[in-house]
Amino acid sequence: MTDFKHISVAETAERLAKQQVVIADIRDEQSFATAHIEGAYHLTSTSLSVFMQQHDFDAAVVVVCYHGNSSQGAAQYLVQQGFDEVYSMDGGMAAWQLTLPVMSSTDE
């Protein structure tokens, strides 16, 4: 069985700019609403089935959490569900927000 891979904030931003990845943000609803990566999908236990219907299993998925820890378990779960290319973003949103812009739900 294939495992997920790690990806840096910089590489995530680069691949996102080229529309080569889907961002799956697993943080709680309030944190997601306050700040998230533009275009990120809020992935929860209730939205998982919709996510799996909307995204091809060969799509590259980057899982994002607060600091890059919880995303590892979620990334491995997505691999087990059949996604081929899954990453856990090292440093999570804490690292992203240090250098890159975020959106809030009021911006969308």
Automatic annotation (TrEMBL):
Matching PROSITE patterns: RHODANESE_3
Active site: C65
Keyword Transcription included in the entry's annotation: no
Protein name: Thiosulfate sulfurtransferase GlpE
Keywords for the protein's UniProt record, in alphabetical order: Cytoplasm, Transferase
Presence of the UniProt keyword Cytoplasm in the record: yes
One GO MF term: thiosulfate-cyanide sulfurtransferase activity
Gene3D superfamilies listed in its UniProt record: Rhodanese-like domain
Compartments it resides in: Cytoplasm
Domain (Rhodanese) ranges: 17-105
UniProt-listed SUPFAM superfamilies: Rhodanese/Cell cycle control phosphatase
Catalytic activity entry: thiosulfate + [thioredoxin]-dithiol = [thioredoxin]-disulfide + hydrogen sulfide + sulfite + 2 H(+); thiosulfate + hydrogen cyanide = thiocyanate + sulfite + 2 H(+)
Biological role stated in the UniProt entry: Transferase that catalyzes the transfer of sulfur from thiosulfate to thiophilic acceptors such as cyanide or dithiols. May function in a CysM-independent thiosulfate assimilation pathway by catalyzing the conversion of thiosulfate to sulfite, which can then be used for L-cysteine biosynthesis.
Gene name in the database record: glpE
UniProt xrefs under NCBIfam families: PRK00162.1
Primary site of residence: cytoplasm
EC code(s) of this entry: 2.8.1.1
Residues in coiled coil: none
UniProt superkingdom: Bacteria
